[in-house]
From TrEMBL:
One of its GO terms (molecular function) is UDP-N-acetylglucosamine 1-carboxyvinyltransferase activity. It is an enzyme of class 2 (transferase). This is UDP-N-acetylglucosamine 1-carboxyvinyltransferase. The modification 2-(S-cysteinyl)pyruvic acid O-phosphothioketal is found at C118. Its EC number is 2.5.1.7.
Length: 419
């Protein structure tokens, strides 16, 4: 099994090119199932989750062309002849549940394995199911599968009691082919929702309000082929900015979307970093200083993203002062804490809040990745730890970061992967 070895102590400097967003490309690939002709997606990151989604769509009967070097995936949904998303694929990638809405809307039937929980929380799908029922779907959950049927879906009113990115995406996709108008209240406002809506619009969907908490969808009879470029990954961008800040360095992320990173940039400035954004470039400059501890509260967008929580905890571990990290989205997203403590961090957990007292230095040790962003936080900590940090179980990392060790090496980090 691959491991990553980081030798700490280098102040990072240079430019890093940001890839397309994992959390945008996955729903967009699922959305191609709604069309009746090929859809081409550009700026596709080379990630394990993308390959899993391609396998899932291929298993449904879609034609898949993947030019990895060009970052292009072409999906021909016209040959889809199955409605089954099997357990073996869904259990490795929760986003597989996003085929539910498209299959139902376009083919009138879907059978999707329940994704189950994962390291960060129980992650139920009740909101997805309720929202699709509001559009006329008949859904039963049995033998570990969500089994859904519908004639043509009809427009309806959906009001979420909790903001859910995935449930908003599922019902948004389903509503595009429904008969009549759907309103989605308390919708998630993440930039990835806006990107999904842009792709659907390119396919002929009629959507208003994506990016606000009320989305209105006027159903159409068919969606056609299209070409769409995936938005830049704001979480990858944020991770590299923290890498710059934690090492006291100067890092510029290119091909980025600084406008999607307001809360993260505010937190970096609170940590004492100079952050400048211009066009698709964003630069963090720490001028060799040690970061100041910051307090973080995770919230739905435009609040501070839970997917950046672990990385900022790593920053607080070596900051001046004491910071608190309040995780409000997932009930169990502190799996990185014990591993950071193995590196010498001083962290105390009380329920969903962690108090992190900054220490002068961390010391390298063998640690284990437990989920995607936890893995990223261990790399960040390793960049400033004395000596070598070896990170095991990095398959989590490959789900969501494209060539992270190559990109960090390009900034001067001493990091390598071993098999
Ligand atoms: C592929 C993808 O885009 N993943 C992102 C997506 O996950 P995902 O779409 O799974 O996250 P949600 O926004 O749905 O989850 C938010 C909260 O709602 C709860 N909930 C969700 C659905 C449901 O039916 N019932 C329910 O109770 C969840 O357990 C969680 O506590 O948004 C999360 C929150 O920004 C991010 O951390 C993930 O990186
Ligand atoms: C939690 C994440 O992803 P997923 O929803 O795919 O598990 C993430 O991207 O940090």
């Amino acid at each position: 099994m691959d491991k990553i070895i980081v030798e700490g102590g280098v102040r990072l400097a240079g430019e890093v090119r940001i890839s397309g967003a994992k959390n945008a490309v996955l729903p967009i690939l699922c959305a191609t199932l709604l069309a009746d002709a090929p859809v081409e997606i550009g700026n596709v990151p080379h990630l394990h989750d993308v390959r899993t989604t391609a396998r899932l769509l291929g298993g449904l009967g879609a034609g898949i062309g993947h030019d990895i070097a060009a970052g292009v995936v072409r999906v021909d949904p016209s040959t889809v002849d199955s409605h089954l998303a099997p357990y073996e694929l869904v259990r490795t990638m929760r986003a597989s549940v996003l085929v539910l809405g498209p299959l139902l809307a376009r083919h009138g039937a879907a059978e999707v394995s329940l994704p189950g929980g994962c390291a960060i929380g129980s992650r139920p799908v009740d909101l997805h199911i309720k929202a699709l029922e509001a559009l006329g779907a008949e859904i039963v959950v049995e033998h570990g599968f969500i089994k859904a049927r519908a004639g043509r879906l009809r427009g309806g009113q959906v009001a979420f009691e909790t903001v859910s990115v995935g449930a908003t995406e599922n019902v948004l996709m389903a509503a595009t082919l429904a008969d009549g108008t759907t309103t989605i209240d308390n919708a998630a406002r993440e930039p990835e929702i806006v990107d999904l809506a842009a792709c659907l619009a390119a396919m002929g969907a009629r959507i208003e309000g994506a990016g606000t908490s009320r989305i209105t969808v006027h159903g159409v009879d068919r969606l056609h082929g299209a070409r769409h470029e995936v938005i830049a990954d704001r979480i990858e961008t944020g991770t590299f900015l923290v890498a710059g800040a934690i090492t006291g360095g100067r890092v510029t992320a290119t091909h980025a979307r600084p406008d999607t990173l307001v809360a993260v940039i505010d937190a970096l400035r609170a940590a004492g970093a100079e952050v400048t954004a211009e066009g698709d470039r964003v630069t963090v400059d720490m001028h060799g200083r040690r970061p100041r501890a910051v307090d973080i509260v995770t919230e739905p967008h435009p609040g501070f993203p839970t997917d950046m929580q672990a990385q900022f905890m790593a920053l607080d571990c070596v900051a001046e002062g004491t910071g608190t990290i309040d995780e409000r989205i997932f009930e169990n997203r502190f799996m990185h804490v014990n591993e950071l403590m193995r590196l010498g961090a001083d962290i105390h957990i009380d329920g969903h809040r962690a108090t992190v007292r900054g220490v002068e230095r961390l010391s390298g040790a063998p640690v284990m990745a437990t989920d995607l962003r936890a893995s990223a936080s261990l790399i960040l900590a390793g960049l400033v730890a004395e000596g070598e940090t070896t990170i095991d179980r990095i398959y989590h990392l490959d789900r969501g970061y494209e060539h992270i060790e190559r990109k960090l090496s390009g900034l001067g980090a001493r990091i390598r992967r071993i098999s």
